[in-house]
Amino acid sequence: MAQGLCGCRSGFETINNVMSSPDAATTDAADATSSDASTPMTSSSLIFGQARLLSSLIGTGAEGIGSQTYDAASLTWSPLSPFDSQGGGWRWLEGRISAATDPEEMVLGIGLDLADVKVQVQRSTDAMWVSEWSTTFGSASPGTFTETRFAGIAFEQNSGNALVVYSVDTETPVFRAWSDGRWSEPETLPINDGPGGPNPDLTTSSVRWVELASRAASDEIALAFVDTDGALGAIIWDGSAWNTASAIAQTATSNIGTRVFDLAYEKNSGDLLLVWGTGSTDFAYATRSATDGIWTTGNETVSGAFDSEYIDLEAAPGGDSIALGIGDLDGTKRLGLGTWNGASWEAVEEYDLLVGAEGDFVVAVAWLNADEAVAVYGGEQSLALQWATWSRITPNDWVVRNLVPVPRKNLSESLRLLRLPGQSQLLALVTDEAGFLHAAHYDGSDWTVVPDGSAINTVLYATQTLPFTAYTHPE
Predict the structure, then answer these.
(1) In terms of C-beta density within 10 A (0-12 exposed, 13-18 middle, 19 or more buried), how is residue 303 classed?
(2) CB 316 within 8 A of CB 341
(3) Strands of 231-237's sheet, edge to edge?
(4) Is the distance from CB of 153 to CB of 212 less than 8 angstroms?
(5) Which tens digit of pLDDT belongs to each residue from 194-231?
(6) Closest CA to 174 of 373, 13, 321, 15
């Protein structure tokens, strides 16, 4: 049973028994060695409507992370500005920006440090990125462990404080909270203290996937994670502590090679939607009411013998709708799409094939506006981007659209799709099997490949993971 763990942020003192791995070593900014220090870069605050792209690079003179900004008005990228020479590179990057008037930007990286696993958080400040802290720890299979994104970062939307949660290859994740420029000491989540203990038991084996979602106009952050046995847990951070009464335990598919779950808050109501694959022909979901905190569970069937093994959710910028992208990656790979209307599911069907898609993020969904959603997805098409749309005018179907020509693109691996805030415009980012990163801009009518006729960069560290991250201001 865990002793003396309140799951709270107050005090920022060192907590006994905070790390689940005895070999873990943590370095904070105050005592960072020269190898942890980041390289100065030319930087400016991200302007509302722009997007920031951070890419994990490898190659002569290109190791580390490269930073670029995208300007929708001119359809141009800023020059690549590298920082953080990490040698072997980061397998995963996740960047976030706060909702403050003078926003903070942070990026979390997952990679290897020789035979150990490394997690690092860096922050953009004073025209440079600096290391806030890093930690390394042992793993029985570090290469396999880092094939999954076992860490996440998010900002509280009201306060601007940050939260990081990561696995140390055990059943109980670790968290650190950032407030007033300081990080709390690493502390295990107040869960999994065994039968008879006061805390909820959610997972029983090594946690491999972690996702965080921030509730708009609130300090609430939802956490969901899955272990190697397919045990799925979720719990709410209320801005100062973990609400153990909010925890829920479910069973997902044990085929966790990709992210088998996702979560998102409805924009208006603040209700939380959690969706996960079950290993059968349907997917499961749970909603948590923002009013009374009660969870309600259900199942939804995708047409045909569809096995939901990848999930992507994105909330509409207004209203309570949430778009759903699903990947069936077992046998004949297939694409499923659907829409949550705040109370029930619409247009949940199989729409296309994903043949040839090998990445971890094979479909991405986003909203052009509160009434129109878009999906981009991988498949057997080289030199083209595959996509589909949904409209509230015809809510019963998603529509697969004509291919978007993308010069030099090989078979797609992983995809992300961003809404540019304050505009009915989207930015699609696609990695291909050659390690190239491509981008395309959608203005609601037409797609434009940016930059025209070429990839953004051709030296991504990895292909099947997500070695890049992109973000815009919260709306």
Answers:
(1) exposed
(2) no
(3) 207-214, 221-227, 231-237, 242-251
(4) yes
(5) 999 999 999 999 999 999 999 999 999 999 999 999 99
(6) 15
